[in-house]
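Batch 3, record 17
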Amino acid sequence: DGGITQSPKYLFRKEGQNVTLSCEQNLNHDAMYWYRQDPGQGLRLIYYSQIVNDFQKGDIAEGYSVSREKKESFPLTVTSAQKNPTAFYLCASSWTANTGELFFGEGSRLTVL
Amino acid sequence: GQQVMQIPQYQHVQEGEDFTTYCNSSTTLSNIQWYKQRPGGHPVFLIQLVKSGEVKKQKRLTFQFGEAKKNSSLHITATQTTDVGTYFCAGLRPYNTDKLIFGTGTRLQVFP
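Prediction for the assembled complex:
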């Protein structure tokens, strides 16, 4: 089945540690996105990538980093510079950056202890 | 800051009652999408509207895009418990078409 796979589903980390969230898609989509969702709030865009080896900052990129070395993979690193990293992280993809629907993964819930 | 607002933030209804959520943008949008997120789940695409004044229906759901392309609404007729979740609108700005701007969401609770 085609889709987007995020891992891990739940993650705990200590303050000061970097953590990398995985996102893999087999939909052959060009565009991929990372969103952050906090309780009772909408989705805020962290980073997005329209094509391999290229990515752009979203609205809340500080404290995060990404890479897009392969079309199907778009990992997100939450660095120790992110002041409030506890959140639900959603990865999504679409055929292109400005058309059609977003397909979301099931999300990764990060808790900083 | 958030440029797409949704009202209400929460809505509790009795099963069988109707429900409407409104989405308002500070700027004109080239299109509007609607997503549903079940509790503990991820957003799932419902529909996309592109034309000014467009109305689309999916069974008990009616979606509308305003004439000025700055607002949209989702109306559910005769709610069911399966309608529970948070409904998000998301718009694409005409001159910054790389990314959707998501609304704040409306959480719907349906009591049997």
